[in-house]
Amino acid sequence: MTVAPLPLPQFAQARQARTFTRPPRAPDAVHAAGRMLDSHGRTIRDLRLSLTDRCNFRCTYCMEPDVRFAAPESLLQAEDFVRLARVAARLGVTKIRLTGGEPTLHPALGEIIAGIRVHTGCEIALTTNGSMLDRASLRAWRVAGLDRVTISLDTLRPDRFAHITRSTCSPQRVLAAIEDCLAEGLGPVKVNAVLVRGVNDDEAADLAALARRPGVEMRFIEWMPLDSGRTWDPDRWVSAAETCAMIERRFPLVSLPTADPSSTARTFAFADGTPGSVGFIAPVSSPFCGACSRLRVTADGMVRPCLFSVQEWDIRPALRSGHDADVAAFLIDATHTKQPGHGITQPGFEPPPRTMSAIGG
Ligand code: SAM
Ligand code: SF4
């Protein structure tokens, strides 16, 4: 895998948030299509719902210990998430990802999954740090309608795990959670890792080895300038190409054809024929904006057309007072404001005020 070296800028201070109650109305032809179409020809198929911005970890590349959470009274209710999923499915969404913060902290997670399953035929996936999973809850969520689980694991070393997550959890517990997901039929399990130079970049091949079995895909995500501490640093950033090269020193890889053009990951198999796969998500070095099919809604009801949007739209009034038709019109209008790309490597790029854990990864 080769990616041209990029001049990575040092970012300026984040801009102030710009929240508008309502997006401008999209053209009538877009509303008539009954789909979430943006002005660059892309269609939304993948809705990411952030159930909470709270988390029991404070991963160093994501959240500082003193991070401030949204006020409880600003948060969407379980029925709001179900309604958003139902309306989005009618507009052509086929995948719903429940994320956060840490979505397993949400007391109504099972109810939300069940509601989405009753009202949509969408694939339902959960992204979690794996710390709170057990067989009983996984089984209950699968019975409720959960299809797949993605688990984050950045290191296999207990001391590093404690340092990175600032938690008392352990890699062994997360590894056990991966086994539990597989045993409960919630595979294939995608395992996400973010490498940071000098922290865990020497573990690329060890982590890739987790995927040398059926049912597990190890995915390396490039660190993005979305952490609450604004500690993102081009000198500590590790590219997908460098990660791939480190893995290939131990496990040569062969590229797999992309089944889904809007997929964020470039996926590889092991050249020696061992089952399993490794994916690279390279939003910084190799942005995939042209094929983006995602729309995000935060736990406090902001529709974000892009991870890096500085403009977001408050859907709470439409949810509170409107009919489903109003919510649908709102989603169509918000989608139409989607920017062509995130522009991370463009001169003058400024990170958005909202951080990854408050957006929903
Ligand atoms: N708490 C859950 C977890 O960790 O899986 C779900 C939310 S977390 C924000 C979703 C994913 O975003 C995780 O895989 C995490 O590693 C990744 N992530 C968090 N901050 C990131 C950053 N600044 N750059 C790239 N990925 C990040
Ligand atoms: Fe929490 Fe996930 Fe962020 Fe870690 S990456 S602090 S687990 S939201």
Strand order of the largest sheet: 1-13-12-11-2-3-4-5-6-7-10-9-8
| Contiguous runs where pLDDT drops below 50 for at least 5 residues | 1-15
| Structure annotation, total helices | 11
**What is the CATH superfamily?**
Aldolase class I
Structural class: alpha/beta
Q: Would you tell me which CATH topology applies? A: TIM Barrel
Can you tell me the CATH class? Answer: Alpha Beta
The total count of strands amounts to 13
- In the CATH hierarchy, the architecture is Alpha-Beta Barrel
- The sequence of SSEs as H and E is EHEHEHEHEHHEHEHEEEEEEHHH
Beta-strand residue fraction:
15-25%
Report mean pLDDT, rounded to a whole number.
92
Number of individual domains: 1
Cα distance spanning the termini = 24 Å
User: Shape, please?
Assistant: globular
Largest β-sheet summary: 13 strands, mixed
State the helical fraction. Answer: 25-40%
